[in-house]
Write a structure and sequence with these properties.
It contains nine helices and twelve strands. With about 260 residues, the chain is of the alpha/beta class. Keywords: Amino-acid biosynthesis, Aromatic amino acid biosynthesis, NADP, Oxidoreductase.
């Protein structure tokens, strides 16, 4: 049996999801057709409905449609509800279900591929948009001791921090010596210089950019400060993809690894 899955976005040509899922499927012996679908704001809902009406098995959702996917889904995981966004869709019992695997993918990447024990770690999160919102709950579940949110709009950072009872705070002046700094802003899409006080770092700080595929201004800044642990978001991409793949094919997967 051939299963049909796809990723929907705009733009979509750059997506690495087909290669990643093809590798998962080959390792598991699953016959998978995985496509890229270019959609627009106007036809996104119709494209999703048509995909599943024609027997599609699962969809990944990327920018800029994650919020639209959340609104379209009839059932949501706790992670999707917390993020207000969906990156994985599937049909179950006649209903369109949505999950957000981004945050758990990040935690899985940090712990399994970068060797970071997140328990007790102090973390600076740059940004207060959808990407940041989607990772906070899984980071808290991983028992980080503190998440400080720094954003160009302090009000937006405070609004995000206020969603959590403890261990999350908005800051305008970051503390010193974070164990982990995560860039969840779209700054990596441009070439503007990135600035942050070097006192936010210590000798073992990991600087992680959720963007992938290029040396971002944030990563360049970290390197200029002498930071020796710098990573882009490809490991997060792989891990969130594996979690989506597990949702679609969990009953027939032979090994729970990437």
């Amino acid at each position: 049996m051939t299963y049909r899955c796809a990723v929907i976005g705009n733009p979509i040509v750059h997506s690495q999801s087909p290669q990643i899922h093809a590798a998962f499927a080959a390792k598991q012996g699953i016959d998978l057709q995985y496509d890229k679908i270019l959609a627009t704001e106007e036809n996104f809902t119709a494209v999703v409905q048509d995909f599943f009406a024609q027997g599609g098995h699962g969809l990944n959702i990327t920018l800029p449609f994650k919020e639209k996917a959340y609104a379209l889904a009839q059932q949501h995981s706790p992670y999707a509800r917390t993020a207000g966004a969906v990156n994985t869709l599937w049909m179950e019992n006649g209903e369109l279900c949505g999950d957000n695997t981004d945050g758990r993918g990040l935690v899985r990447a940090l712990s399994q591929q970068h060797g970071i024990d997140l328990s007790g770690k102090r973390l600076l999160l740059l940004g207060a948009g959808g990407a940041a919102r989607g990772v906070i709950l899984p980071l808290l579940e991983a028992q980080v001791s503190q998440i400080d949110i720094l954003n160009r709009s302090p009000d937006k950072a405070r609004a995000l921090a206020d969603l959590y009872a403890e261990r999350v705070a908005a800051v305008e002046h970051p503390a010193q010596g974070y164990d982990l700094i995560i860039n969840a802003t779209s700054a990596g899409l441009g070439d503007s210089a990135f600035t942050l006080s070097p006192t936010t770092l210590h000798e073992q700080t990991l600087c992680y950019d959720m963007m992938y595929g290029k040396q971002t201004p944030f990563m360049q800044w970290a390197a200029a400060q002498g930071c020796t642990q710098i990573a882009d978001g490809y490991s997060m991409l792989e891990n969130q993809a594996w979690l989506a793949f597990h949702i679609w094919f969990g009953t027939i997967i032979k090994k729970d690894n990437i």
